[in-house]
Amino acid sequence: MATEPSRPFVLVHGGRHGGWCWQPVARRLRARGHEVFTPTLTGLGERAHLLSREIGLGTHIEDIVATFEYEDIRDAVLVGHSYGGTVITGALERIGDRVRGHVLLDGHMPRTGESVFDLIGPERAKAMTALAEEQGEGWYIPTADAARYGVTDPAAAAWVNSRMTAQPLKTYQDPVGPTYRAWQHPGMFIECVPSSLEPHLLERARARSEADARFHHQLLNTAHDAMVTDPEAVTALLLDALDLG
Prior knowledge:
Elements: E1 9-12, H1 23-31, E2 36-37, H2 57-70, E3 76-81, H3 83-95, E4 99-105, H4 116-120, H5 122-135, E5 140-141, H6 154-161, E6 167-168, H7 170-173, H8 180-184, E7 187-192, H9 199-211, E8 215-220, H10 226-229, H11 231-240
Parallel strand pairs: 1-2, 1-3, 3-4, 4-7, 7-8
Antiparallel strand pairs: 5-6
């Protein structure tokens, strides 16, 4: 039985993943009595049949806004992993009043007008664009091996690899809209050790936590796909996020 007030969690996956990746964490949160939503962004995961070159960052932001509106979600903890951090940052401009606190799990934290490519830098952006040209018909990023995300356990890696899907290049190229509410909202950044994020992005999160008492920085000694490699620790930190706000 839950020892904390029951509140909804909305868990947003990262690039080339889907809502499936949150299964180990979602089970634990539900066992504590919380309602959990794990939306899959358009064109990914079980929605891969919708993949198209027209899908951009705005599409994925709309996915999250619609989830809140159609499921009538309020007073939630909103979580974004990796690329999902950009998605929830953009969505908060419209659903901030429905969110108790937001959590970036090794996630991108853009400012207004920044794209994922802006955040990861020109070298990585150039490499991803070249990958799309070579293996993705010029408009999508092909799947990646689970090892890239730090998943080394054979069974877990096989599970991840069997579910990874391609992602439109446009979602990484599109600039996010206004992010003012996200930057003023109570939140938490969970830095995985080792992290897959660029050092300057980790420093951005640390600096924000030092300047904003309502924004907390936490370290987690596990790989970038922490919801797979250490779901127990991720669950514990997400439960701590109930005190945000």
